[in-house]
Automatic annotation (TrEMBL), chain A:
Gene3D superfamilies: 1.10.150.910, YVTN repeat-like/Quinoprotein amine dehydrogenase (2.130.10.10). InterPro entries: Beta-prop_RSE1/DDB1/CPSF1_1st, Beta-prop_RSE1/DDB1/CPSF1_2nd, RSE1/DDB1/CFT1, RSE1/DDB1/CPSF1_C, WD40/YVTN_repeat-like_dom_sf. This is Splicing factor 3B subunit 3. The lineage of its organism: Eukaryota, Metazoa, Chordata, Craniata, Vertebrata. The gene is SF3B3. Belongs to the RSE1 family.
TrEMBL record, chain B:
The keyword Coiled coil does not apply. The lineage of its organism: Eukaryota, Metazoa, Chordata, Craniata, Vertebrata. Residues 183-227 form the Sodium channel modifier 1 acidic C-terminal domain. Keywords: Metal-binding, mRNA processing, mRNA splicing, Nucleus, Spliceosome, Zinc, Zinc-finger. GO terms for cellular component: nuclear speck; spliceosomal complex. Signal peptide: none annotated. This is Sodium channel modifier 1. It is found in: Nucleus speckle; Nucleus, Nucleoplasm. Residues 80-99, 156-187, 199-230 are annotated as: Disordered.
Length: 1208, 230
């Protein structure tokens, strides 16, 4: 078995975000890292939409990311710390739209190791040096400079190692143009390590250490070190030199402290807390991330607490001495992994979990009533300030980037009866979690829908002048009339446009600079800017059947197959070309490329006809499998767009798209010189004839194809996408540009006119989200009603009941604490407090403390997303497993079993026991009726139906339970599973148990002896998270380190093994190291790089083949597909091999060793690497494809083929 | 470390050789004559006292023993009288070979040779298979009070792929008549037996059912449910 790995949707969680002018223009961009992916985002300052410019998979773990700019430079570089044991400096090349590796310096072993640098990066704010540090001991400093040609140079590394030292954070201190300085939060554990009494360990303090790079001596010195009172978690650099007082802010538990060299005293300010917070008041509060905003005149910091509250921090100075730290509550947004403040006034929040946001900073919060807290305010030690959280005031949400991260569970099924299965994904964490339904398709936002007097046939938009940015008219054609609408603030009907309204229209367009042309069955109407009208009438009884129009040319086809060609002369006159061209058959469809080719389709033939200088000569002809319906020539691919520096990138190819009547779309490359047609790709779009329309998407041409479903064919990040629109059937469309919607589509559907926008280009799935209360852990589908039964469990959380109780208690305390005369006021306040309801999805849920659990069981309709039933479990009962099943002794009733742990403490682990709740599904699968509760000794972490009974993994015990009257009855037990049963799969009499740490164990149930007997296991330790059966002997599993494996029992495996019948089993009688005597074989191993939490064997497209679909914690979705022929496998193996050498990963990690991170990669070819073929430079593409005895288009066609055979 | 054998002690080498041959030959032990245990050891299913043997070598030695041979006679005698159709697997195998030889002996032979040359490992087929070689008689489970046929019926239910089974039947028809279909009452009885057994009831040997002490029952469950029904 050989498999091919394809990513359907890349990870969406963000681990780092940095901003800067990476393309070297005034515009600021954001670079984010998503684990193993680097992505360049550009927020559009006008629309506020965030566009993705470039996504690169680096096949390595990005551990740190920093931007820097050389002194006096205008362009920012990216420095990446990864697990490659190398420091890599990247530059964004806007003309090629790629990251270019400028420097790659090796300093250590690969892998995420304790003492190999890469975990922390710090740059000198003036861009003169970069420090890369490990978690322990090693720190290296590289000096950055320019050479004579102004290229960036990097020095050899300077060591700043100190043994027995742990590092928490490193930043570059802004010291102006003095010697570069780095501040470091460190802890020296040497003494603690050598002191057996443990006294030293208790007294060890964290230190703030400054390292200075002496540029004169070319040497790094540990300049100064100071023990800290509180344990810090991160540092913020304070602007220095001419911009500010320099120094650092140390964020630690409950306090933020300013420190600097010299006479500067420490300034310390407590972190304010929410008033009347339900959290444990003893719990500390820390800042988790920060963003700095600096202009010439001022600077401030935005720092976010772990509750999501952002504070604006400013420093008061007196002659370069900081006298005061001031904090002001700014707003509350979801807890972020990173924040960026852009010069254009946007705040980008890369959420820790769930969707990411772009906010506009509307106010700086300078002049409002919000109290400002200051370090100068006298407070007792341990006391702090309080503030009242409130909805957004200073920030305005402008864009939201969907993120599935973390995906906890996923099932793929066609519950909505749509032919194509949907992905039901449980994602998110805590109160921001949701169940999302993913469907293949592009999300369509409906800008406007208006009803028309009749059923229109066609619609176009025209501009009034060639330099106009936006369209002026929408022309709607009916059976016997034409309606002209003008686009302004509103869309209104106009009659003075010059268009003929009493006839249907065949086509219309802008002609020349400012004239319009309307083609209708009886003639052509040329409307000049001054409203003079020239008309050309068809001769005799002939009418125009088809036409093609562009800004200079008009080609019409008359009945009988006659082609007439018109061209505009310099005076703006539309002249008929003297010679007409007789075609041998009726013309079915036509298309005109901007300057050269009118293409025209005839019955079963497609001809490319050259331009009139050659007198409409046929250039090439293509036979078609069915009658064509429409044609469209577009220029796609490459980066056609001119970038801001005026450099023009490579020009894309010309493509001839042919829509056939049988619903097939053909895409053919059209040679711009000879007119040759080559490299035809076919795709079935739907049951209706395919109509094609040229539109503009993100500055490039794209084709909208309409069949029974509408599709958009576009090029995005050097890959072709043909994606269906998640929208109802449309009949005709045209591009649309207005101020509100610069890149939209105007379309007709029955009797309505719709203005649509496609914003999320590049996304494979469109999603519908239904909110949940706690983190969803698992769900099952009730097969009869298709309802989902979801278990949601959160640690460190209160149940609704406890929350209400605590609130009541706090309100009572409030009243009691008040004096006699304040009673009334206090009661009012308490009432207000009880009524106040801040949405937890924004403000977060109160943290209840370690060992506090809250759970619910929810029955949900997956189509409407409404909750049909909700069962709240008691405080500290944590649901971990769920199953829906029937029992053979109760007939047709469905039961839901939920495994619940009681008082589970994670570390050090302890558990008071567990329960299995049994519910009967009543009311057609909509309600849960509680039946009984079965106590068990350990956590029941896995439940699976088995032969009319259930198998439950209780800790390390595997048991068969049957339904009893008062509880579940234990019928059989196996105690020989190694650690903890994390999953159970069954097939026939075989049970495949996944252990949390010891891979898979095959168990056979012997019915006539009522025994569960282990007969085989795996030879590798795998920390299995999820598993899926592929066939009777084969199981696919994923582990928590991000590997996927397939293991199979060898053909001679015997599952008829017996327990020792003599019964005198002794301690030494248990096989080698407690293992089973028969072992499974590894079929395939692959490192995905993200923890995989669900695996399912399924088909994703109707009529497609089966594939293994996985979802990852970081929000990625991928598939593993089997090769069907040895030729394919051989081909892709070679592609992979050549790409490994010709196109090595960006961050310096070796591809083969990355994919073999934990187990040597076996029998899997990495499609993500193979698909990078498309983004290679053309000459390299040529080299690689020559080695493969093919041409580059053939290679990319193969890459596209294997993808579309299984997925999208 | 090397796994190469060092030294030139021929006796040791011969011992190893003999063991290797023994191991190879051991695969000719019919599956119903031996039980494989969970820990990889073997129990002889022929001898009534079920001796447990640690390695294949020991099992081979045991199988050559006098005691075993006498038990073997007893065992097959019983089996044959019980089912009539069952015979020693070897002659059956011969018979089958002869049957195939009739068509084109040379061709068949060549095909077999090429097959074995091309496919060093058995071809993988994802379908579920019976684990018994066709020539082996149906498996019997020693400590079960049920005759072998019942177990066969049970495993037939699990089996998804009928081909090996039908092959077996076809071959059986050449030597003996096909087993008579199980009558509905018999099937019911078997079903009841398995249901009771899997829900924790144990036959005490006197036709009564007692509760397994390691299994939980409903508090009002005093007798097996089927008996109550009767």
């Amino acid at each position: 078995m050989f498999l091919y790995n394809l990513t359907l949707q890349r990870a969406t969680g963000i681990s780092f975000a940095i901003h800067g002018n990476f393309s070297g223009t005034k515009q600021q961009e954001i670079v984010v890292s998503r684990g193993k992916i680097l992505e360049l985002l550009r927020p559009d300052p006008n629309t506020g939409k965030v566009h993705t410019l470039l996504t690169v998979e680096v096949f390595g773990v990005i551990r740190s990311l920093m931007a820097f700019r050389l002194t006096g430079g205008t362009k920012d570089y990216i420095v990446v710390g990864s697990d490659s044991g190398r420091i890599v400096i990247l530059e964004y090349q806007p003309s090629k739209n790629m990251f270019e590796k400028i420097h790659q310096e090796t300093f250590g072993k690969s892998g995420c190791r304790r003492i190999v640098p890469g975990q922390f990066l710090a740059v000198d704010p003036k861009g003169r040096a970069v420090m890369i540090s490990a978690i322990e001991k090693q720190k290296l400093v590289y000096i950055l400079n320019r050479d004579a040609a102004a290229r960036l140079t990097i020095s050899s590394p300077l060591e700043a190692h100190k043994a027995n030292t742990l590092v928490y954070h490193v930043v570059g201190v802004d010291v102006g143009f003095e010697n570069p300085m780095f501040a470091c939060l460190e802890m020296d554990y040497e003494e603690a390590d050598n002191d057996p009494t443990g006294e030293a360990a208790a007294n060890t303090q964290q230190t703030l250490t400054f390292y200075e790079l002496d540029l004169g001596l070319n040497h790094v010195v540990r300049k100064y070190s100071e023990p800290l009172e509180e344990h810090g978690n991160f540092l913020i650099t304070v602007p220095g030199g001419s911009d500010g007082p320099s120094g650092v802010l140390i964020c630690s538990e409950n306090y933020i402290t300013y420190k600097n060299f010299g006479d500067q005293p420490d300034i310390r300010c407590p972190i304010p807390r929410r008033r009347n917070d339900l959290d444990d008041p003893e719990r500390g509060m820390i800042f988790v991330c920060s963003a700095t905003h600096k202009t010439k005149s001022m600077f401030f910091f935005l720092a976010q607490t772990e509750q999501g509250d952002i504070f604006k921090i400013t420093l008061e100075t007196d002659e370069d001495m900081v006298t005061e730290i001031r904090l002001k509550y700014f707003d509350t947004v979801p807890v972020a992994a990173a924040m960026c403040v852009l010069k254009t006034g946007f705040l980008f929040v890369a959420s820790e979990f769930g969707n990411h946001y772009l906010y506009q900073i509307a106010h700086l919060g300078d002049d409002d009533e919000e109290p400002e807290f200051s370090s100068a305010m006298p407070l007792e030690e341990g006391d702090t300030f309080f503030f009242q959280p409130r909805p957004l005031k200073n920030l305005v949400l402008v864009d939201e980037l969907d993120s599935l991260s973390p995906i906890l569970f996923c099932q793929i099924a066609d519950l909505a009866n749509e032919d194509t299965p949907q992905l039901y994904v449980a994602c998110g964490r805590g109160p921001r979690s949701s169940l999302r339904v993913l469907r293949h398709g592009l999300e369509v936002s409906e800008m406007a829908v208006s009803e028309l007097p009749g059923n229109p046939n066609a619609v176009w938009t025209v501009r009034r002048h060639i330099e106009d940015e936006f369209d002026a008219y929408i022309i709607v054609s009916f059976v016997n009339a034409t309606l002209v609408l003008s686009i302004g603030e509103t869309v209104e009907e106009v009659t003075d446009s010059g268009f003929l309204g009493t006839t249907p229209t065949l086509s219309c367009s802008l002609l020349g600079d400012d004239a319009l042309v309307q083609v209708y069955p009886d003639g052509i109407r040329h409307i000049r800017a001054d409203k003079r009208v020239n008309e050309w009438k068809t001769p005799g009884k002939k009418t125009i059947v088809k036409c093609a129009v562009n800004q200079r040319q008009v080609v019409i086809a008359l009945t009988g197959g006659e082609l007439v060609y018109f061209e505009m002369d310099p005076s703006g006159q539309l002249n008929e070309y003297t010679e007409r061209k007789e075609m041998s058959a009726d013309v079915v469809c036509m298309s005109l490329q901007r300057s050269r080719f009118p293409g025209c389709g005839l019955w079963t033939y497609c001809r490319i006809i050259s331009d009139p200088s050659d007198c409409l000569q046929p250039l090439s002809m293509q036979a078609l499998p069915a009658q064509p319906e429409s044609l469209c020539i577009v220029e796609m691919g490459g980066t056609e767009k001119q970038d801001e520096l005026g450099e023009r990138g490579s020009i894309g190819f010309l493509y001839l798209n042919i829509g056939l009547q049988n619903g097939v779309l053909l895409r053919t490359v059209l040679d711009p010189v000879t007119g040759d047609l080559s490299d035809t790709r076919t795709r079935y779009l739907g049951s209706r004839p395919v109509k094609l329309f040229r539109v503009r998407m993100q500055g490039q041409e794209a084709v909208l194809a309409m069949s029974s479903r509408s599709w958009l064919s576009y090029s995005y990040q050097s890959r072709f996408h043909l994606t269906p629109l998640s929208y109802e059937t449309l009949e005709f469309a045209s591009g649309f540009a207005s101020e509100q919607c610069p890149e939209g589509i105007v379309a007709i559907s029955t009797n309505t006119l719709r203005i649509l926008a496609l914003e999320k280009l590049g996304a494979v799935f469109n999603q519908v989200a239904f909110p949940l209360q706690y983190t969803p852990r698992k769900f099952v589908i009730h097969p009869e009603s298709n309802n989902l039964i979801i278990i949601e469990t959160d640690h460190n959380a209160y149940t609704e009941a406890t929350k209400a109780q605590r609130k009541q208690q706090m309100a009572e305390e409030m009243v009691e604490a008040a004096g006699e005369d304040e009673r009334e006021l206090a009661a009012e306040m308490a009432a207000a407090f009880l009524n106040e309801n801040l949405p937890e999805s924004i403000f977060g849920a109160p943290k209840a403390g370690n060992g506090q659990w809250a759970s619910v069981i929810r029955v949900m309709n997956p189509i409407q997303g409404n909750t049909l039933d909700l069962v709240q479990l008691e405080q500290n009962e944590a649901a971990f497993s769920v199953a829906v099943c029937r029992f053979s002794n109760t007939g047709e009733d469905w039961y839901v079993l939920v495994g619940v742990a009681k008082d589970l403490i994670l570390n050090p682990r302890s558990v008071a026991g567990g329960f299995v709740y049994t519910y009967k599904l009543v009311n057609n699968g909509e309600k849960l009726e509680f039946l009984h509760k079965t106590p068990v000794e350990e956590v029941p972490a896995a439940i699976a139906p088995f032969q009319g009974r259930v198998l439950i993994g209780v800790g390390k015990l595997l048991r068969v339970y049957d339904l009893g009257k008062k509880k579940l009855l234990r019928k059989c037990e196996n105690k020989h599973i190694a650690n903890y049963i994390s999953g159970i799969q069954t097939i026939g009499h075989r049970v495949i148990v996944s252990d949390v740490q010891e891979s898979f164990i095959w168990v056979r149930y012997k019915r006539n002896e009522n025994q569960l007997i282990i007969f085989a296991d795996d030879t590798y330790p795998r920390w299995v998270t999820t598993a899926s059966l592929l066939d009777y002997d084969t199981v696919a599993g994923a582990d928590k380190f991000g590997n996927i494996c397939v293991v199979r029992l060898p053909p001679n495996t015997n599952d008829e093994v017996d327990e020792d019948p003599t019964g005198n089993k002794a301690l030494w009688d248990r096989g080698l190291l407690n293992g089973a005597s028969q072992k499974a074989e590894v079929i395939m191993n692959y490192h995905v790089g993200e923890t995989v939490l669900s695996l399912q064997k399924t088909t994703l497209i109707p009529g497609g083949s089966e594939s293994l679909v996985y979802t990852t914690l970081s929000g990625g979705i991928g598939i593993l597909v089997p090769f069907t022929s040895h030729e394919d496998h051989d081909f892709f193996q070679h592609v992979e091999m050549h790409l490994r050498s010709e196109h090595p990963p960006l961050c310096g990690r070796d591809h083969l060793s990355f994919r073999s991170y934990y187990f040597p990669v076996k029998n899997v070819i990495d499609g993500d690497l193979c698909e990078q073929f498309n983004s290679m430079e053309p000459n390299k593409q040529k080299n690689v494809s020559e080695e493969l005895d093919r041409t580059p288009p053939e290679v990319s066609k193969k890459l596209e083929d294997i993808r579309t055979r299984y997925a999208f | 470390m090397s796994f190469k054998r060092e030294g030139d002690d021929w006796s040791q080498l011969n011992v190893l050789k003999k063991r290797r041959v023994g191991d190879l030959l051991a695969s000719y032990i019919p599956e119903d004559e031996v039980l494989m245990l969970r820990d990889g050891r073997f129990a002889c299913a022929i001898c009534p006292h079920r001796p447990i043997l640690d390695t294949l070598a020991m099992l081979t030695a045991h199988r050559g023993g006098k005691k075993h041979l006498s038990s073997l006679q007893l065992f097959y005698g019983k089996n044959q009288s019980g089912k009539e159709m069952e015979q020693n697997p070897r002659p059956q195998n011969e018979l089958k070979k002869e049957g195939t030889k009739l068509e084109a002996p040379l061709l068949t032979q060549t095909r077999l040779i090429t097959q074995s040359a091309l496919h060093r490992a058995p071809h993988y087929n994802s379908c579920c298979r019976r684990k018994h070689r066709p020539e082996a008689p149906s498996p019997s489970i020693s400590c079960s009070p049920l005759p072998a046929q019942e177990i066969e019926f049970q495993s037939e239910k699990i089996s998804r792929e009928p081909e090996p089974r039908s092959g077996l039947q076809a071959k059986e028809s050449t030597t003996a008549s096909a087993p008579a279909p199980i009558s509905p009452t018999r099937r019911q009885a078997l079903d009841r037996y398995l249901t009771l057994r899997s829900s924790g009831w144990i036959p005490d040997g006197e036709g009564r059912w007692v509760k397994d002490e390691n299994v939980e029952f409903d508090s009002d469950e005093e007798e097996p449910p089927d008996l109550l029904l009767d």
